[in-house]
Amino acid sequence: MTTSTILRISGFALAIVALLASPAVAQSPTEATGHHGDHGIAGDDLDDATAFHHMVRGIDVLPNRATMEERWPDALQRLIAFALDEDVPEYERWRATSLLTNFPESEAQDALLKLTDTEEPRIRSMAYYVLGTTFLEDGDDALLAELKTGLDDDEERVRADVVRSFGWTNNEDAHQILRDIATGDRQDDLQPIAERSLQRLAD
Q1: What would the mean pLDDT of 99-107 be, rounded to a whole number?
Q2: Residue 43 DSSP symbol
Q3: Of all helices (H) and strands (E), which one includes residue 161?
Q4: In this structure, which long-range contacts are made by residues 66-72, counting pairs with CB atoms below 8 Å and at least 24 apart in sequence?
């Protein structure tokens, strides 16, 4: 595993922990019903579909790819289905979107790109964040162009997560965007976020 990959995973973990600590997700349906399993994976007494549902609904753990695929070899496809299904509750779609960071495959990237058009700002924001932290490599002009559209999103949380994601990529053009935002005069809160992202890159 490369140093840049380790940094991205670490950065994602820090961001997800901060998001999970917010009042909006202070208690999940999993906590309310008392269903917990080791490392976020529900017990063997549940069928695969129910156990997967409970895992996605959890907030107290961040199951990794190996743990998920040990129980569900098709974990990637299950997460994508949850994330894209507009009939699934928003929290569970957001959680499934966040867990796609474990799967740097084109199938996950395609799903995340679709999610940048969803009407739910919270999910849209996470989709952009995972795209930036997990998939954006130096020289990937096509993906950078997609991410830049998020900088003009109507929701400030979406714009902010695009900027945060640029602090976890080796894409030099994304770094230049951070410098431009940090020294510019945007009428939102992106400047301090860009400054922190640049500081992270310098550390």
Answers
A1: 98
A2: P
A3: helix 156-166
A4: 67/39, 67/40, 67/41, 68/41, 68/99, 68/102, 70/41, 71/41, 72/48
Report pLDDT digits (tens) over 127-157: 999 999 999 999 999 999 999 999 999 999 9
Q: Answer for the pair 4, 170: CB distance below 8 angstroms, yes or no.
A: yes
- State the virtual CA torsion across 185, 188, 192, 195 in degrees, nearest 10: -50
Cβ pair 148, 140 in contact under 8 A? no
Which distant-in-sequence residues (6+ apart) come within 8 Å of 178 by Cβ?
163, 166, 167, 194, 197, 198, 201
Give residue limits of the domains in the chain: 3-202
Q: Please, what sign has the CA dihedral across residues 76, 78, 80, 83?
A: negative
Cβ(169)–Cβ(144) under 8 Å? no
C-alpha to C-alpha distance for 18 and 38, rounded to whole angstroms: 22
Whole-prediction pTM value?
A: 0.79
Task: Determine contact, residues 120/90, Cβ cutoff 8 Å.
Answer: yes
Q: Find tokens 């996605």 and name the residue.
A: 56
Residues in the chain: 203
Say how far apart CA 153 and CA 142 lie, in whole Å.
18
Domain 3-202 annotated CATH 3.30.160: no
